[in-house]
Amino acid sequence: MRIVLDARKYYDFGIGTYIQNLVAHLESRCDLVLLVAPDDMHRIDQHCLARKRVNTSKKYSIRELHSIAADANKLHAHVFHAPHYTTPFGLKMPCVTTVHDILHVKGNGHYSFPKRVYAQAIIAHACNVSQAVIVDSEFTKRELMESFTITDERIHVVPLGVSSMFFKKYPAKEVQRFRNKYGLVKPTILYTGSLKPHKNVELLISAFSNMRHRSDFQLAFSGEYIKKHHELWNVIKQKGLTGDVVEIGQVTTSELALAYRASAVVVLPSLYEGFGFSMVEAMASGIPAIGARAGSIPEVVGNGGLLFDPHSAEDLTCTLENVLDDTLLRKKLVLRGLRNVKRFSWEKCAEQTFQIYKDVR
After folding, report:
1. 155 and 202 assigned to the same domain
2. Residues 134, 175: one domain?
3. Is-above-0.85 flag for pTM?
4. Residue 142: is its pLDDT beyond 70?
5. Are 241 and 220 in contact (CB under 8 A)?
6. Residues contacting residue 232 through CB under 8 Å, at least 6 positions apart
7. Segment 308-335, tens digit of pLDDT
8. pLDDT confidence of residue 109
9. Which of 89, 145, 246, 337 could form a disulfide with 283 if both were Cys (CB 3.0 to 4.6 A apart)?
């Protein structure tokens, strides 16, 4: 069975992790062909055996809605998979679309009216033409059914997985080398991911500022560089926290695993998530996970971590201090997290996705 997958977001945050792991677990199951961005071809070639074809369309462009279909049709695919909601027009084969969330439709005040209209139209198109729509969580399924015309039987909840890299045991010397490299000289509160407005990072900064009387902790950011987000960096400067904030930046998966191991606690303050990778990665790493009571985060965290009010810096401060001060609570959270994270597997995700391919063919 030949599957064509739009992989132009192979190196994006979140969706890129999804594509990379799906490809790794699907390429031995089928004749998998990836449509990739020109700049990514050589990088992907180094660790991916699937066949690849370059597509030059820009992401979120009008052209991509037609050129992707044209490429898939030429390849005589049995099934086309859009791993993001931008499902093309004119496909001549069954289509599966993954909708990770509908944040661009909900807006939450962070997206312009034209962007919301575009997302509304494109997701509606995906719901209309896809034989199956995959979502990461029951939360996104509910949101999709409330906002679009789609029947329950065409939506499939397929939870995402977590890389084996996060379960590995790392020598203490290796973790210490990582700490030395990035200046993690104190117990660390870690945030990893993008710095988009809905991620609610300013609340985390405020909660950390409330702990300023305690000079024995650092706040670290992995992913986007916070100094490039001037509004957030100005908040840090205004609160006098520049000496206690560390930038790890964008790192490899193996280094990210070390970032978790080098941390005392991981926080996801987001106002909206379709899944929330950092929570499962923290739990797999044996690090206490603290997540906002919003979106799919409570569903993913389960009883493996703690939740807080995403609109209350004081609630997050209190939760952080409880975890950091209570050794017994930290041990309980680690054990509960390791049990909870067993629900999430890339092998299982790929297996369920492949079954959906077979069902729609």
Report:
1. no
2. no
3. yes
4. yes
5. no
6. 195, 201, 202, 205, 226
7. 999 999 999 999 999 999 999 999 999 9
8. 62
9. 337
